Amino acid sequence: MKNILSKISLLVLMICLFVGWNQKVSAQQDPQYTQYMFNMQAINPAYTGSIENTLSATLLARRQWFNIPGAPVTQTFSIHAPLMNNTVGLGAVVVNDKIGLTNATAVLGSAAYHLKLKNSTLAFGAYFGFRQFRLDYSEARTSVGNNYDPAFDNLVTQSRPMVGAGLFYYTQNFYAGFSVPQLLNTRENVSGVLIKHFSHYFFNTGYVFDVSPKVSIRPSIMLKYVDTAPLSIDLNCNFWYNRKFGVGASYRVADSFDLLFEFQATKNLSIGYAYDLTLTKLGPYTSGSHELMIRYQGMVGKGGKDKIITPRLF
């Protein structure tokens, strides 16, 4: 009985989230990341190929609002590298985002052109791909004895194209980016419920202050806006020792307080972890959110094995 009530509660929660008043959804729908400064290709295609002579691959897993059934669970994989003397970047991004009975998977190719200026670079990027939306009622299936309700045995799938664009300006110590990962406002009609996906707008910037030969401080900020939802603001500051060990804190306004850790495990591999302490009314019901990141970086091009990766904290 407890299991049945749990599943029914989950179904009611999802109906409330997706139907709402007037059977429309208009909130922040794209996945959020605490370690966005190390996962920027997932929100801005212009970041593709921005690290000179370096192939970069990032795997990130996030579990939001731990202990709450149906809370968001997100996995992201991104890979990119520069070509043509670091003027062109090519890559791919795969994002899987599960919330309750729904699962959205985006598969994107990303490309960027890097315009070299005197002491900086301005990049223009684009996404091209598709997003598949799945609603699996079977996960809320209920049965008591031999009584079975087939209404909970249904799978709805729909696919929509995705096109996005972005700008990324950067130097060795500074960056600023603006992007719209999905330019197309899409609609899914699921069992008579209209689910609308609105464009999300991202702006982020940061600077690395080298206060000594071994100590660096990197403050950053990210703004996220979507129509009909409040502006999301992330404030972050990280402290680095020898560009190998990092610890920091973030504040997502009116949402969470976050702790971040990262270290360079090997020459090519770094590992990061973030913990979000929820500050909303969900706080008493969850132990927080967890995010794990693994990033690989290796040299490409002529003599790549003999080159040394120049550490860059974004």
Could you please describe the fold and organization of this structure?
It is a single chain. The protein has one domain (about 1-305): monomeric porin ompg (Porin), CATH 2.40.160. The protein has about 325 residues and is mainly beta. The protein contains one helix and 19 strands. Strands 1-2-3-4-5-8-9-12-14-15-16-17-18-19 form a 14-stranded antiparallel beta barrel. A two-stranded antiparallel ribbon has the order 6-7. A two-stranded antiparallel sheet has the order 10-11. The longest helix is centred in the N-terminal third of the chain and has 17 residues, at about 1-20. Helix content is about 5%, strand content about 55%. The relative contact order is 0.17.
Which secondary-structure class do the elements indicate?
mainly beta
Can you tell me the overall shape? Answer: globular
First CA to last CA: what distance?
50 Å
Strand order of the largest sheet: 1-2-3-4-5-8-9-12-14-15-16-17-18-19
- Average pLDDT figure: 83
Return the CATH class.
Answer: Mainly Beta
Return the domain count: 1
State the fourth-level CATH superfamily: monomeric porin ompg
Helical residue percent? under 10%
Kindly state the number of beta strands: 19
Largest sheet at a glance? 14 strands, antiparallel, barrel
Overall CATH architecture: Beta Barrel
Q: What is the H-and-E element order?
A: HEEEEEEEEEEEEEEEEEEE
Beta-strand residue percentage? over 45%
Low-confidence stretches: 1-28
